[in-house]
Specification:
Layout lengths: L2 H9 L14 E5 L2 E4 L4 E4 L2 H4 L8 H13 L10 H14 L4 E6 L2 H16 L3 E5 L8 H5 L15 E5 L14 H16 L7 E4 L15 H12 L2 E5 L26 E4 L10 E6 H4 L14 H16 L2 H21 L4 E6 L4 E5 L9 H13 L2 E2 L1 E3 L6 E4 L7 H18 L1
Parallel strand pairs: 3-13, 5-6, 5-7, 7-8, 8-9
Antiparallel strand pairs: 1-2, 2-3, 4-10, 9-10, 11-12, 12-15, 14-15
Amino acid sequence: MSSLYERQRAVGPDWLALYYRHPLEITHGEGRHVWDADGRRYLDFFGGILTTMTAHALPEVTKAVSEQAGRIIHSSTLYLNRPMVELAERVAALSGIPDARVFFTTSGTEANDTALLLATAYRRSNQILAMRNSYHGRSFSAVSITGNSAWSPTSLSPLQTLYVHGGVRGRGPYAHLGDAEFIAACVADLEDLLGHTHAPAALIAEPIQGVGGFTSPPDGLYAAFRRVLDRHGVLWISDEVQTGWGRTGEHFWGWQAHAENGPPDILTFAKGIGNGMSIGGVVARAEVMNCLDANSISTFGGSPVTMAAGLANLSYLLEHDLQGNARRVGGLLIERLRAVGAASECVREVRGRGLMAGIELVKPGTDEANPEAAGAVLEAAREGGLLIGKGGGHDTSVLRIAPPLSLTITEAEEGAEILAEALRAAG
């Protein structure tokens, strides 16, 4: 093991996870590639957990960061901040939420924490509906609504959380149903659940579950839920930390696949908007955002430097139609991955949208999750020059594929071929 790894082990917590048997130090990147401390180049299909969304070392973003840092790095929200106002205006307009207000944070965890604060204060209820297999962050409140035991280290909670069916299409008691019947069964389950509880504050849901292995319901499920929630006055929070900014290709936001009954009351975002800079945020209609009756600020949320990065990155994404690229190149990549999966007895399903794909691995001849195979493929892909992620529900047995949105067709083909070889090598 490297001396850097030994030094980290000596000063970091034991629960701070690292990928690979021999952990990797990434020293620099360009486009869709990164280099390690030994000078080896890798094709990056994970982007720092979907955070380097556009490209490594994107000149437009690095220039904006450098120029802003040369003027002023920090002031806090106690002062007017032009880049923050300009980015908030653009995010509000893109959100689809009428009379939208925007509050910036430093992470998706903090964004979801803020959304929970708003919803519980507005509704005067500490009861939250969440989806099974979900992940919403690592704070005390966020782990308490996370429906994935691998990422929820304590059962102590400031909230009462009730879990709803529907986030996972291919497993569970309704998996055998057609899409319309699946939605009807999940809605009936929600109706029944609400008949046994006090009035909840909100339902929080990822349109595509990220850490859960890129699982999702049929289009329209959350629209159907919205009809039920509205009758009970329950808010809908759409966690767009991983699905936002066009990654799914088909839509700019994940909630737009469920738009029949309007936008969510609250939308959270983070990860890709800063292309690696620390930005998160909450969008809510004014009535909800303004419900707090105490002072609040953010010391680091809305920093001039991160806002400059977000403005430059968002402009680049829109001007170069990276959502369209995610649809076109992502569609090709998923098609190639399905062909790869068909040739492997370990692959149960290849799923996803745009540049957000999951490969679920099982023990050959069974439906049993295979986390050992996922770990082996992760290692073999690295040996082949490709970085990917992993996740999943009951077991970490899903390979997570989420390249920067500027991925080229040639790079998609190359990555798919390395994955095919990694699956063969892993058995």
